[in-house]
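Exam revision sheet. Question 4 asks you to relate a sequence to its structure. Input first:
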Amino acid sequence: MKLKFQKSRIEIFFCLFLLCSSFSLIAQTKIKGKVLSSADNMPLPGASVIEKGTTNGTQTDFDGAFILEVTNEASIIVVSYVGFKSKDVVYSSDEITVMLEDDTALAEVVVIGYGTQKKSDIVNAVATVDIEEATLSPTSDVNEMLRGRIAGLQVNVGGGTLRPGGTSDIIFRGQGSIEGNVSAIYVVDGIVREGGIEDIDSDDIKSVEFLKDASAQAIYGSRGANGVVLITTKRGATGKVSVSYHGFLTTKTIERNFDVYSGQELAQLRREAWRSTRNDDSYADDVIDEVFTPTEYDNIINNRFVDWEDELMRNGLVNSQAISVSGGTEMTKVFGSINYFKEDGLIPTSSYTRKTLRLNVDQKISDKFSVNFDLNLLNDDTSRAAAVNVITNSPFGTAYNEDGSITQFPSGEEGSAVNPLWNLREQDHNEKGNDYVINVTPIWQITKDLQYQLKANLTRRTSERGQYQSSLSSAGDDVRGIARIDNQLRESYLVENILTYDKAINNDHNLNLTLVQSTQENAFSRTFTEGQGFANEDLGYNGISSAIGNVTVERDGDKFRYLGYLARARYSFANKYTFEGIIRADGASLNGEGNKWSYNPAGSFAWKIHNESFLEDVNAIQELKFRASYGSLVNDLGRAYTSLFTADFQPYIYDEETGSGFSPSTILPNPDLKFERITTLNLGLDFSIFNRVLAGNINWYDARTTDLLLKRGVPPVTGYTSTYFNAGEMQNTGLELGLTANIFNTEDFKWSVSTNWSNNRNELLELYNDGNGDAITEDNSFNYYVGQPVGVIYQYAFDGIWQEGEDYANSPQANPESANPQETLAPGDIRIKDVNGVDEEGNIISGPDGKITQEDRVFTDPNPDWFGSISTSIAYKGFDLFVDFYVVEGATKINPFLNQYNNGGTLRGDINGIKVDYYTPENPSTSFPRPNKDAADQYLNALAVKDASYVRLRTVSLGYTLAEKFTSKLKFEQIRFYVTATNVFTKTDYLGYSPEVNIRDTYSSADTGYPDAKSFTFGVRVKF
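Answer key, C-alpha cells:
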C-alpha cells in the first residue's frame, strides 16, 4: 500500500513538472535585435537591454546584437547606453533595430546672452558656427573667417580690409538704417565690446553664436538692433595640464581677372584717341603732332617699358604661432595662451604684426562663491604702404637707372609722373597699438536655483599713427616734407548686475527669470599734429617738433554713456511649448532731453512638434520645431552731440595778427532728434530627419524701421550744410535656409554636405512731407528714393555702342529737346535707352518719348539677389578634406576703372588703365566706346554699372591626423598636419582685383589701394 501511494505521488509530481514546464515554455518569449547609434548607424557594444520592471536583462555583443527572453509578449524592454538617450521598445516578433540618439546632440549648450540654453530648447533665431571649419581660413580678421558660415550674414569689406591688419564689418539681414548704425555688436565672454575684436585670436575661440532676430537681440536692447555676435573664449578644465600648439605658414599671391595695356597697346590707344578728333579720321604723326613727348616716343620705339605690377607686387607671407595651456582642479581652472601673427603684404613696406596674451582663470572659493578673471593683452604694429597704383601708371620708361638705383621719373622726363617705387621709399606710414581688456566676474550661488553675477570690464585701446612724406616724395616736395602724428585713446567701462532664477518645478514645468542692470561708458580722444618744412629729415615723423613751416594741431573727443534695465522670463511646458518675454529699458546720452530713454520689448514662442503624440511613432522625424518671434528695438545715430550746439576751432586775422576763435560746426543741431525703431517678425522651422541624416532650419523675417535717421540739407544762409532728423520708414524682408546632410557616418568614413542660402529685399517705404503736407518721394542730394533700396544706383541704361549704318543722327540722344543733346553723335559713341517719357503735366509715363531726359534714368539695386555657400567635408581614417564654395548672385557695382579719368577709365590715352575692347572703325566693338583725347563719352557712367556677381572656391583643405597608436607612443594626444588653399579662384565678369570692393576710388577717402589674394597654407596642430 505504501509503495503504491509513493508511486502515485511520484506520478503526480512528474505530471505537475511537465505542466509547469509547458506553461514556462509558453510564457518565455525571445526578443532578438540590434542596438545602433542614430548619428552614424554604428553598433553599440555593451548596451544594456532590460525587461522593464524586472531585473531580467542582458548586454549587446560587439556587433550590437542581443537576445533576451521576456515573460510575455506585452513586455517592454528598456535599452540604454552611456552618453545616449534611453529608449523603451515594445515586443516585436521580428528582429528589431533600436536606434539610440546621442544625448549630447540633444543637450548641446548654446550661448544666448546672459546665460546658456540647450540647443533643442532654443526659442529664437540663434545660429552657431562650426569653429573647426571657420579657422581653416588663415586670417587675422575673425569676421572674414565667418563669411558664408551663417545664413543672413554678410561681411562688408572696405577699401582697407584686404591690407595686412585690415578689418571688416558684419551686416545682418541687410541694412536696417540709412544714416544710423548698421554694424552688429560683439559680446565677448558676456562683455559688450566697443569697436572691433582685433585682440581676439581665432585659436582662443571656443564658440561663436549669432543672435539674428529681435527677440534674441532684445537682451542687449538698443545696442543689439543690428545683430549680436557672441564669442566665447576657451577656459580651463579639471584634469591634467594640456598643452596645445598651432602653427602655420601662408604664402599669398595676387589674383586678378584683367590685364592692363602693355606699352605698345597704350601707345596705340593714345593714337586712336587722337585719331578720333581729326576730321579725316587719319592717324596723327606721333612726333610732329606731339601725340607723344620726345622721351615717350624714344621709349616706345626702343621698347623700354615697365610692368608696374611686377615691380610693385611681391608674394605675401604669413607666419602664425599659437601656444595654449589648459588645466585645473575642482577649485581652480586656468586657460592661458600666447599668439604671434606676422603678415608681410603683397605691396612692399606693408606688413602687420600682432602679439596677444590671454589668461582666463575660474576660481571656486566655496560651494556658494566663485570668481572668473579674464585678461587679454594686445600689441600690434602696422606698416601701411603708400597709395600704390599699379594700374594707371604709364608703362613708358624704366623703373631703375643703369646703376640699379630707383629713377624718380620713369619716362625720363622731368616733371612727369613720379615712380611709385620712389614714393614708397620716401614715405613712412606706421601705426602701433596697445590694448588690454580686463574682466572680473564674481558669482554667488545664493540657492540651488538663484544666482547673482557681477560683471565688471575695463577696455583700453591706445594707438599712435605716424606718417612722414619726405621732401623728395610727390606729396612733400613743395613744402620740404610733411610729418603727421595721430594719437588715439579709446576707453570703455562696463558694470552689470545679473540675477538669474532657474527652476524645474516638475517634469512638465520649467521657469527661468533673468534681471539685469547695466551701465557702460565709452570715451574717445584724439590728438592730431601735422608739421611741414624740415631742414633735417633723418628723424622722419619723430622730428615733427622741428618743423619750420605750417604746424597744425587738432584735438577731438567724445563720450557715450549707456544705462539699461532688463527683465527676461522664459517658461517651458511638457517639453513641447516654450514662451519667452523680454523688456529692456535703455538710456543713452546721444539724444536731446526727453529722447534719451527707449523701451525695447520682444516676445517669442517655440513648439516642439516632434514631441506631440501624433508624431511619437514617426521614426523618420527626430526634431521638428516651429518658432515665432516679434520684437521692437531702437537704433541710434552713433554720432555724439548732434542734438547740441557745437563749435570748431577757427583762427582769424585781425589787424594783421592771427587770433584764436571758434565757428559753428557744419551740422545744424536738432534737439528733437530721437532713436529710430526697428520692429521685426521672425518665423522659423528647425528640423532633423532620417535619424539626423538631414538637419537644418528655415527663417523668414520682416523688419520695419520707422522714424528713420535721415540727413537733409539746409539753406547755406544759416551757416550750416545739413542736419539729422527722424522721418520715413524702411523695410527689410528675407528668407534664410541652412541644411546639413550627413551622408555617411561610419567609424572609418564620414561624408557631410552643408549649405546655407539667403536673400534680402531692402526698400525705402516712405520719406517725409513738404511744408504743404505733400509726400516727398525722393532726395537726390542724399540718394533717398521711395520704393528703392538704400544705396540704389540711379543712372541711364547702357544700350550698347552706336554702329556704322545705324540712324544715330535721328536718335533720341541727338534730339535737340533732350536734356543734353548730342548733335555730333557718331559711330563708337555710347547708346542710351529711351525708357520713359513725360506728359504735359510733368508726370512720368512709361515708354519712349523720342528724347533723353532725367526721367530716362533707371534704378538698379546694388544688393545681391541671393548669396550663400556650399561645403563638403570628407574624412577617411586619418585623412580629412574640406571644400567650400561661396556664391554672390545679382550684385551690381559702379566700376571706377571704367568711368573715372584718374582710374584710366575715360579712354583718353593719357594714363594706363584696365584693358578693354574699345571701338575703332576696324574693330567696331559693341561693348566699349571709341577713345577720344579731348573728352570722355557723355554717358560713360552708364557703362560703368556692372554685374558684380561671383562664384569663389574659397577653401580647399586637406589634413592628416596621426593614428592614436603612434601618438600614444610619443606621449601626444594629437598630431595633425594640413594644407589649405584659400581664394583658389573667383569666377566673375567684374573687372578688378575683387568683385567685393573697388580698391581705388577717386572720390573715396577710405584706405584704398590693396588687392585681394589667393593663399596657400601649411599648418601643424599638436596637443599633449
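Marking note for examiners. The first helix runs from residue 2 to 27.
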